[in-house]
Structure formats: C-alpha cells, structure tokens
Amino acid sequence: MISLEWYRSFIEVYRATTVSGAAQVLHLTQPAVSQHIAALESALGHPLFQRTPRRMIPTEAGKLLYNQTAAAIEQLESIPTKNSSADTPLLIRLGSPQEFFAEKVLSQLPQDARILYKIQFGLAQELIEQLVAGQLDLVVATQKLMRSDIEYQLLFNESFWLVGPPALTIPVSTELLQEDITQLEHWLRKQPWIAYSEELPIIRRFWRVVFGRRININPKLIIPDLRLIRQAVEQSYGFSVLPDYLCQDWLETKRLTLILKPGKIVSNCIWLAYRRSERQTHRTKLFLESLNWT
C-alpha cells in the first residue's frame, strides 16, 4: 500500500527541486525523504525524478503525478485534525516592519473573537529566519529572501518621495529645480539629511535611480523609525526620502513639502511570506484575503 507520506515527500521534492529543501519543509531527515521517493517509484513502477548533482528534475511521469496529486494533498492538509476544537482560539504570530504594521496592517487585521495575535517587529532577514525556525507563522517582508521552503505573495507596492519641511524656502521654484535635474541634485547635496541608518539604504537607492550616481553625505540625524523621520522632517531637521503611504496625508495637510515625486518611479514590493507547507492553512488564506491590496 502506498503511504500518504510518500506523496507528501514527492510533492515537496518536486517544488523544492532538492531532497534537502523538501526535508526542511517536512521537518524530516534527507534519508527519510529519499526513502519515501524510492518507495513510491518502486510501487508505481517508474522513476519520478532524474537525479543530478544539484537538483531533482521531474520525469514526464513525475509531472503527471504532481498534477494528479498536488491539489488533493493540499486539500487534505487544510482539514483540521480530530483534536482541534471550534472553540479553540487561533493564534497568529506575525512578523512585520513596525511602521508598515502601524500604518497599513493594523487597521486590516481580521477582527474575530476566535483569533489571537502576537506581533513581532524587526528587519526582513531576521523575521524570515524566525519564520523558517517555526517561531512565526507569517511575515510581512520588505524584501524577498529566496528559500525553497518559503513562499511569497505580493501585498503592496510602495513608492518613495523626497520630502522637506513644511515652511521651506527654496531659492528657485520646485518646478524649475525638477526640470533641471543637475541643479536640483546640486542644491539637495547642500541640505541637511535625515536617514534610517548610516548606510542610507533608502536615500542611496533613490539617488542612484533618480540622479544616476551615488550619494556621499553625512546625515544630520539618524533615526531607525520612518514615522519619527517624518516627524523630524516636519520639525525642520532636514530632508529625507519616505514611502508614499507615510507622506500622502501629511503633504495634503501641508505638514511636509514635496520636493520630488520622480517620473521614474522608485518603488519597493512588500510581501506576505509563509512556509510553503502551510499555504492552505486557514491563517494564511485569511491574511491573503484581508491584506491583498495589489
């Protein structure tokens, strides 16, 4: 009799293209996964993969079997276990950048008496590591770190704008500065800057895309919080580059001055990351439905 676990191992090897990647997803040893594949091939009477030094390449029989079984296995994995109870609260452990969570995610969290939340703030790399280790269930990530056991769904596209203090005196009109990109760059280099870190990650990328060269400045103020940077710009400490979702309302109420919204958009994708083996779970589907703004 063919074991269901053999099919699960087959599906994860097919997706990860390696036995090691599948073993990570399934929380099994590599020899155990290899034994499952060998047993399934023996039971079916034909090879499912072509073994190469770097990856497992599915045969035509393997491709056919995947198409026949993948949806059924995912459906089975989404069914609650016998020990689950409708009255048991669902705990969702979510990792996210603090600013994005406060501005965009919090108001969209599914409000249900049966759902409990535990929120962890941090940078994308450390949050993804916690997701892989099973310490988080879902991660809102500002970058896509490729791993065979992690899957991503696009949530949001943020664009970056260059902003300055509200009562700003500019030697010539902003429109003229924007028409003469060289003059604008020269003027901006003389201004005080507020950055997220000493590496100027957002400002440096913006400068390279818009002006086509690297920027070499020493920021006047370093604050590892985009909302506090926004507040510091409002209080005339200097200029900065911020995502549109943090700027829009403050520009409309004249708490900030828009210096440059570039025609060549400087943007970044924000993803919902989850373990590939849990794509069909209730918590994952719930978040994809509630946070899908793309």
Account of the 3D structure:
With 294 residues, the protein is an alpha/beta fold. The chain folds into three domains: 4-77, Orthogonal Bundle (Arc Repressor Mutant, subunit A); 90-157 and 269-290, D-Maltodextrin-Binding Protein, domain 2 (3-Layer(aba) Sandwich); 158-266, D-Maltodextrin-Binding Protein, domain 2 (3-Layer(aba) Sandwich), CATH 3.40.190.10. It is 42% helix and 20% strand. It contains twelve helices and eleven strands. The strands form three sheets. Strands 3, 4, 5, 6, 9, 10 and 11 form a seven-stranded mixed β-sheet that branches. Helix 1 (4-16) crosses helix 2, helix 1 packs across helix 4 (60-77) and helix 2 (19-26) packs across helix 3.
Describe the structure using short key phrases.
single chain, 294 residues, alpha/beta, Arc Repressor Mutant, subunit A, D-Maltodextrin-Binding Protein, domain 2, 3 domains, 7-stranded mixed sheet, two-stranded antiparallel ribbon, elongated
First-last Cα distance: 45 Å
Q: In sequence order, what are the helices and strands, one letter per element?
A: HHHEEHEHEHEEHHEHEHEHEEH
Put simply, the count of helices is 12
Task: Tell me which CATH architecture of the largest domain applies here.
Answer: 3-Layer(aba) Sandwich
